[in-house]
Model the fold of this input.
Amino acid sequence: MGAWRNYLAPGSKRDFMIASTMGLVHFMAQIPYGIGAYYLDRAGRADLGTTVGWGANIGMALIVAAGIGFAAGEWRGVAKGTVRTLQAAIAILILAIITLAYANSLQTN
Done:
């Protein structure tokens, strides 16, 4: 009981602002996804608009989140092997997004 006081503890305002910003960025990321899916559908690729768009959206969300984590110092002091694993995962995500985009360009009506 009394855990509600933690919301008023020193540093909680900063944490609230970071969490709110993360929520806003996540919400705003849905806008380009929706626009991209809409235009893929209008281009006669209704079966790929949401599939390709969603994969690219989630991949980019993870890449941006990791980038913000690096910029905020979240990864300072973490073992170098762990950072290399994250960097490899980001490279794989970028390659996957490029592959999705290329495969989508091969789709014919």
